[in-house]
Amino acid sequence: MRTTLSLDDDVAQLLAKEVRRSGDSFKEVVNRFLRAGLMASKRPARKPFVIKPWDLGPPSGLNFDNVEDLLDTLEGPERR
User: Could you tell me which of 8, 5, 42, 44 has the C-alpha nearest to residue 27?
Assistant: First the structure.
């Protein structure tokens, strides 16, 4: 199929650079990169990464209302 295509200058430079590097024709390089881009767009979207929160509150029976009592419970009264 023949078609006319207007390329941005930066894209044309990148394609010309790939033509020189690979030795392939301009047509082959354009088709290869178009095919790769179109195939990549067909890939299913990844599922979003979900972080499951953990409750980091005090263990049952403990509270942070009175720090001295909490320290006595966790470290013992000899901590002083």
Answer: 5
